[in-house]
UniProtKB/TrEMBL annotation:
UniProt-listed Pfam families: Thioredoxin_7 (PF13899)
Domain of life: Bacteria
Record's keyword annotation contains Signal: yes
Thioredoxin domain: residues covered: 14-159
Alphabetical UniProt keywords: Signal
InterPro entries, alphabetized: Thioredoxin-like_sf, Thioredoxin_domain
Classification via PROSITE patterns: THIOREDOXIN_2 (PS51352)
Lineage of the organism: Bacteria, Pseudomonadati, Bacteroidota, Saprospiria, Saprospirales
Record-given protein name: Thioredoxin family protein
Signal sequence coordinates: 1-20
Amino acid sequence: MKNSILFLAFLLLSSVGLSAQKEYKATHEGWLVNIDDAYALSKKTGKPILANFTGSDWCGWCKRLSAAVFNKPDFKSWAEDNVVLLELDFPRRKQIPDEIRQQNQSLQRAFQVRGYPTVWVFNLDKDESKGGFVIEALGKTGYTATLEEFTSGVDQMISRGGKGK
């Protein structure tokens, strides 16, 4: 089921500087860390965004999900064809730029994420009149033990909601 969420606090997201973006990289290769970059790529490709809310350096289930799904070559191939990858990390030991931390916290509140890992799949549109984004949530998942279970679940979310706009 599609849910639409108007999220106006995204104004702060446009303040994420290029220097912070260049210095800070996602834990996994091929993942973006900036919602503006994910939005631009989603619009260009017509693919929804797959956002992984994670505690990469402390969350045991997040590490298991990475090993079981995200680190697999077949996942990388599937993702390239189906989604735009966005990592929203909440580390305890690793430092992240304040702008990225604020962005991640804003998205955590918007999606009401209370535990890790949580993976949301969504389409994103700009609402120029209100200066924010409109999020069309396609679905969410958490830890899954296998790549097949994960990609099958996300494929179902995408097919129910349409592939981007």
